[in-house]
Amino acid sequence: MTQNGELLAMTFDVHAHIVPTELMEFLRVDGPSLGLEIITTAEGKEKLRVAGRQELGPFPPVLFDLDARFAAMDEGGVDVQLVGHRTEFSAYALPSDEGARYARVFNRILADLVAAHPTRLIGLGTVPLQDPRRAAEELVYLVQDLGLAGVEIATHVDGTPIDQAGLDPFWDAANELRCLVLFHPNDPLRGLDLGRYFMDNLVGRPAESTVAIGYLLLSGVFERFPDLVLCMVHGGGYMPYQIGRWEKGYKVVPQLVGANLSRPPLEYVKKLYFDSLVHIPEALAFLLELVGPDQVVVGTDYPYEMAERTPVRFIDSVPGLTPAARSAILEGNVRRILDGVRR
């Protein structure tokens, strides 16, 4: 956005969820042919059933409501959202053919939506990670043909750990495109009972991210694909706080921790991006000290319960934040990411 030929300061939110109404309309009519069913509960709310065995939802109405979204953005000081699906909508449980067809429909619908609101929304598509070759092809399509900025992926592939899913074709495409890969937890710590006290969200989601990023880093993904542009939500889970333990392990059991690495873990971590959704300024100050302000971006998790409704105010609450660091977090880092995408 410019004024009198000068670029105006803006705030970008990289972590916001959306479900286009056109997608729901498609799923109601054609979803069953792909293994995706919209079902209605006794209370009249809609849920999504994937592959006959996973039920997601119900969904908050604001997921579909653009007017409410733009009003919330204005209230929170956000100019542009980078929007992706609820991670459950990745639908990795579908067979390969159906998963690829669904991803193509989703990405086209999302591209049309953001094209209709180019000053407020930037799209992060989806890929069928259950078929890594097709995921790579879809990533190239959604970036180079549809003009999306990248992709949102989950922390496992329908229960298969992220390092064991054979994803090198996808990582290779992302590495070449230098598009944004937003890494988001899904179905956290499958098999562990976290149903009480909101523990699946409070503890499970950041723990899921921590486990998954450990698999990626220690399996050598960042070693093999050094130009990956990956952003972890929720401030990186628990990893930033415990990266010292990973560093210690690299020194004392290098045959296990360092088998796929040529450098200590912290050196890879400092090349990742992290969103600001850590809820207290002390935690954000620690993250900024660890990785530097050039690796932190705004994330709100709109529109869910744990969302940060006033992200600019939250950034400004960090003690000692310099104007340069503030500008980088709110805007500069995202502009650098977007400018680097090879469309």
What does this structure look like?
This protein is an alpha/beta fold and about 350 residues long. It has one domain: TIM Barrel (Alpha-Beta Barrel). About 45% of the residues lie in helices and about 15% in strands. The chain has 13 helices and 15 strands. The longest helix is centred in the N-terminal third of the chain and has 21 residues, at about 95-115.
Ordered list of secondary-structure elements with their pairings:
Blueprint: E1 2-3, E2 6-7, E3 12-17, H1 21-30, E4 36-40, E5 46-50, E6 54-56, H2 66-76, E7 80-84, H3 96-116, E8 121-125, H4 132-145, E9 150-154, E10 156-157, E11 160-161, H5 168-177, E12 180-184, H6 199-218, H7 221-224, E13 229-232, H8 239-252, H9 254-257, H10 265-269, E14 273-275, H11 281-291, E15 296-297, H12 311-316, H13 323-340
What are its keywords?
about 15% strand, disordered N terminus, about 350 residues, TIM Barrel, 13 helices, globular, three-stranded antiparallel sheet, eight-stranded parallel sheet
Q: What share of the residues lie within helices?
A: 40-55%
CATH architecture: Alpha-Beta Barrel
The tally of beta strands, per DSSP, is: 15
Biggest sheet layout: 8 strands, parallel
Rounded to an integer in angstroms, the radius of gyration calculated over CA atoms is 19 Å
**Average pLDDT number:** 95
Strand-pairing-aware structural class: alpha/beta
Q: List the total number of helices.
A: 13
Spatial sequence of strands, sheet with the most strands: 3-7-8-9-12-13-14-15
Envelope shape: globular
Which oligomeric state applies?
A: single chain
Low-confidence stretches: 2-6
CATH class: Alpha Beta
Proportion in β-strands: 15-25%
Distance between the termini: 21 Å
